[in-house]
Design goal:
The chain is an alpha+beta fold. It folds into 2 domains: 71 residues, Winged helix-like DNA-binding domain superfamily/Winged helix DNA-binding domain (Arc Repressor Mutant, subunit A); 59 residues, 2-Layer Sandwich (Dna Ligase, domain 1). The protein has a 3-stranded mixed beta sheet, with no helix packed on it.
Length: 183
């Protein structure tokens, strides 16, 4: 007789939860004998490096594109599978923006409270630079002062999430025209 695993149903984390150590699952550090350490393959290394080097939340497609620079034969299924494993192990955190596909950033990036900018033209998502504090802080370290004051009187703010929408620097810069000699 097989014993059912005790799995608690957890709601999907919101963007701000990824920065709240109490809301996001802790990285799994202990393994059982039935759960071997993940193999360090070229594909896995390229995927992890793509997320780290980009230093911004990436979609599956962006991770695939960047990782293929190192491993040209990398497949879509491998990227999806590896991201799922990295999420389960707590090495990646999902960044969920309203109405958008999930993006992913490293656990170390998520541990510093920050917000995001979504470019309406290219759909890339960027971290908003700021002093940053460890996850969970509000009104300090890169957050607009007075965020707590936005809540109705008598309400207590536990966490917040700010997403700015607009056009990124690259999309706002007009393309350079090459000079062609006329003659």
């Amino acid at each position: 007789m097989k014993r059912a695993r005790n799995r608690t149903s957890a709601r999907a984390p919101r963007c701000c939860d990824a920065h709240d150590p109490h809301a996001a699952p802790a990285p799994r550090t202990s393994r059982t004998a039935a759960e071997p350490a993940p193999r360090r393959t070229m594909q896995r290394t390229a995927i992890v490096r793509a997320v780290e080097v980009a230093a911004r939340p990436l979609s599956h497609a962006e991770i695939l594109e960047l990782a293929r620079a190192e491993v040209p034969s990398l497949g879509t299924a491998t990227v999806y599978r590896t991201i799922a494993q990295l999420l389960e192990r707590g090495e990646l955190v999902a960044v969920q923006l309203p109405g958008q596909i999930n993006r992913y950033e490293s656990r170390s990036a998520a541990q510093v409270h920050h917000h995001h900018f979504h470019c309406d033209r290219c759909t890339r998502v960027f971290d908003i630079a700021g002093g940053g504090t460890s996850a969970g802080g509000s009104g300090a370290g890169g957050c607009a002062s007075g965020v707590d004051a936005l809540a109705p009187e008598g309400f207590a703010v536990d966490r917040h999430d700010i997403v700015l929408y607009g056009i990124c620097r690259e999309c706002a810069t007009p393309p350079r025209r090459s000079r062609v000699a006329r003659g």
